[in-house]
Amino acid sequence: MTQLRLNDTVPDFVADTTQGPIRFHEWIGEGWCVLFSHPKDFTPVCTTELGSVARLMPEFEKRKVKVIGLSVDDLDAHARWIPDIEETQGVTITYPLIADPGLTVAKKFGMLPADADGHSDTRTAMDNQTTRCVFVIAPDKTVKATFVYPMSSGRNFVELLRLIDSLQLTASHKVATPADWKDGENVIILPSLSDDVARETFPQGWEAPKPYMRYVADPR
Predict the structure, then answer these.
(1) Are 101 and 71 spatial neighbours (Cβ–Cβ below 8 Å)?
(2) Quick one: which of 68, 142, 166, 196 has the most CB atoms within 10 Å?
(3) Active-site annotation holds for 33
(4) Which is the catalytic residue, given 10, 34, 45, 46?
């Protein structure tokens, strides 16, 4: 299994989705994207996760992030699963869900081994348990964050939004975000900036409990 690493370019692919066929890079366009995957339709934890993402879509849209799901099943199964999600979670699914019955996309992204065999009809969720990934993709189509959860633990998509806030901030300013940082809180000047350069970039100054820890207000 060849897993994608940070700053790798994500594979391009053509696939059917619940909103029609896509070519992935073209579908992403010029903005940020989140792809999150599931090992099988009609799984309880994934049902709650798809609902959670649907409720948070205004927050993703505010950050100009496109969201797309993937599950190792075909379009017919997706079409039967989505009403269950909407009924039990009280939301409408407005983002597309990729059909991957032949495991093609899961293999391209390193979520399943290249030699994984079979079709979605012959595989269980346990067979596909590593297909529980999230990829945060930058406008240049590179991976900026990725994580994988076990099937027994639901993913925290509010934390994903916090991560996206950090990624978008640090992509455009010479700062890093400390542990438990939230949007609008103080950030850390990158260690690669000398004090002289930092004074030009952050003329308002900073607080430094240690020389290598230079806290500054959110530059935005």
Answers:
(1) no
(2) 68
(3) no
(4) 46
Half-sphere exposure (Cβ direction) of 216: Cα atoms closer than 13 Å: 22
Please give the pLDDT value at position 3: 78
The single residue listed with the structure tokens 């009924």 is: 87
The whole-number pLDDT of residue 220 equals: 85
**H runs (alpha helix) in the chain:** 24-28, 44-55, 57-62, 75-89, 104-108, 157-172, 195-201
CATH of 173-216, one of 3.40.50.300, 1.10.540.10, 3.30.1020.10, 1.10.20.10: 3.30.1020.10
Say how far apart CA 197 and CA 61 lie, in whole Å: 35
Low-confidence ranges of the chain (pLDDT < 70): 1-2
Domain regions of the chain by residue span:
14-155, 173-216
Please say whether the structural domain 14-155 has been given the CATH code 3.40.30.10. Answer: yes
pLDDT tens readout for residues 37-55: 999 999 999 999 999 999 9
Secondary structure class of 219 (helix, strand, coil)? coil
Tokens 């009280």 appear where?
A: 90
- C-beta of residue 36 within 8 angstroms of C-beta of residue 120: no
